Amino acid sequence: MAKRNRKKKRPSSPLQRLGRGLYRTLVILSALIVGAWIAFKAVSRRPTTADDTLRPNQTVTTDDPNTQDVDESQGLQRKDGTWTFLLAAEDQVSGSTDTIMVCTYDTVNQKIGLVSLPRDTLVDRRVGPYHYHKLNAAFPNGNIANPPDGGIAELMAAAGEVLGIPIDHYALVDTRLFVELVDAVDGVDFNVPVYMNYDAPDQDLHIHFNPGMQHLTGQQALEVVRCRKNSDGPGEYPNNIYDAYPDADIGRTRTQQEMVKTIAKKILSNPQKAGSYVEILSRCIKTDLSLRNLLWFVEPALGFDFDDLTTATLPGDGTKSYDGVSSVYELDVEESLRIINECLNPYTTDVTPEMTRMIRAD
Q1: Which stretches does DSSP call E strand in 135-240?
Q2: I need a surface site. Which of 38, 89, 90, 138 has the fewest CB within 10 A?
Q3: CATH 3.30.420.590 is held by the domain 72-174+285-355
Q4: How many CB atoms sit inside 10 A of residue 139's CB?
Q5: What number of other Cβ atoms are within 10 A of residue 246's Cβ?
Q6: Residue 89 neighbours by CB distance under 10 Å
Q7: 3-state secondary structure of 67
Q8: pTM exceeds cut of 0.85
Q9: Tens digit of each residue's pLDDT (9 = 90 or more) over 145-173
Q10: Backbone phi, then psi, for 294, in 5-degree steps?
Q11: Tell me: the pLDDT tens digits for 85-114?
């Protein structure tokens, strides 16, 4: 029987071996990525929205006996994948909320609106035995009336009443967040809008900036967003204080909005530091969103361009008086409604004047 000759298998070239190794590595990496993504989707949980039952200010009454009261809550429909959030920072000295913003995130259309509510916005509310007329008083009065967490609940209710929309969730920010996040990304380049020169010896607060673009550390970024007044006027402190912005606190809200946008863009440009961000956020933000809720927002947030973030401040007049309280901020109803509907409205139909409660001053 003839002996069959077997062909010797040629040894693989280094290039072929490298190709097979790369292919195996890619297969393994792909499997790991798919597995991690499946696990991520399994862990994340879609957040809830606020209960859209009728709020007291949504019943429109009329003096016409031939016309029935209108229940504005009927027929209101939420936009799919849209949530509203209250963002607030507690004043380090007074215990009031120094910064009050409401944000609406439409994850379907990738739109975010961020609107500042001036701290002295006129309201007329009671919580427990306390009657107050400025929005930033909601937090301390709520905490006193209903400890330990009644402050944030009262602020959400008051802000929602003014805007005529439900507030789904909140984030109460410790001001250390600015410092630590900005330092984590090695500072930010920011255009300081006005001359800032403020010294408050009783607060150990010292703010000194010339206007213009400059690189800010975390502490400097915090000082810029806190500054409302200058203290280099004639006389001695506190009689030498005057507004740093021509439009007083409204100017500061614009600076705060720009700083939020600047920090967010710098964070997203450094995704390799995600672990540091999570650790800082967990220490410096109190929120009713669970970790699983926050993870749910990761996927839509990856597709958002912060250059498309829409910001505004509710317009009005801060020189009014109401019920014996001076310097309250009376909102311009028509312009405020326009901003609410353009930036914040989570409904498929417009918020109407009857759904809001914008108090008129004396």
Answers
A1: 169-173, 188-192, 196-200, 205-209, 212-216, 229-230
A2: 38
A3: yes
A4: 27
A5: 8
A6: 21
A7: coil
A8: no
A9: 998 889 999 999 999 999 999 999 999 98
A10: -60, -40
A11: 999 987 766 667 888 999 999 999 999 999
Distance CA 356, CA 160 (A): 8
Residue boundaries of the structural domains of the chain: 72-174+285-355, 178-259
Banded model confidence at residue 40, pLDDT cuts 50, 70, 90: very low
Residues 143, 155 contacting (CB under 8 angstroms) = no
Q: What is the mean pLDDT of residues 276-282?
A: 85
d(CA 341, CA 326) in angstroms, rounded, equals 29
Max intra-chain CA distance, the chain? 119
Looking at this protein, which amino acid is placed at residue 306?
A: F
Dist. CA 168–CA 190, nearest whole Å = 31
Second-level CATH architecture of 178-259: 3-Layer(aba) Sandwich (3.40)
Tokens 């007074």 sit on residue? 94
Main-chain phi, psi angles of 171, to 5 degrees: -135, 115
